[in-house]
Design brief:
globular
Length: 149
């Protein structure tokens, strides 16, 4: 589990803002909705990389679980945890997907010191980020989280 200790997830700025708003409203558990069986499958933490135009790791959270399955059934069970405001918006978002994922998490923390793309690439020793996100080990995750605090 050490190699899959944290997952760096790519999110659009509008979803990040909505997660923060839900957190500020006192909501404890959140769900990130994606089509198909999207990662992470299992991890301890999620670090949110907010894509362009922001381009930084803006926060982190504790991973609860990933639920994959029938779109209607999962909406009934976890729709209230998502940032999608209605079933109609959810259906428009998932389109014709036969399977969806609800990535559930809690204890959302906004970074005091967000990590820019250039600093992240330099720290990880890579040239670009995977658009589907990627796992990092415990040592790397701990360093990233401590830098953000």
């Amino acid at each position: 589990m050490n190699e899959d200790y944290a997952f760096i997830m790519m999110v659009k700025e509008k979803w990040w803002i909505k997660f923060r708003e839900r957190h500020e409203e006192g909501k404890k558990i959140h769900s990130f909705v994606t089509r198909d069986a999207a990662p992470p499958k299992s991890t301890q933490f999620i670090l949110f990389y907010v894509t362009k135009p922001v381009g930084e790791i803006a926060g982190y959270t504790q991973f609860i679980e990933r639920k994959v399955g029938d779109p209607q059934q999962l909406w009934k069970m976890y729709g209230s945890e998502s940032v999608l405001s209605s079933e109609e918006q959810y259906e428009e978002f998932i389109g014709s997907a036969r399977k969806v994922s609800f990535v559930r998490f809690n204890n959302l923390s906004e970074a005091t010191n967000p990590i820019s793309l250039n600093n992240l690439l330099m720290f990880l020793g890579i040239k670009r980020l995977s658009r589907k996100g990627f796992y990092v080990n415990k040592e790397t995750a701990d360093k990233l989280i401590s830098f953000m605090k």
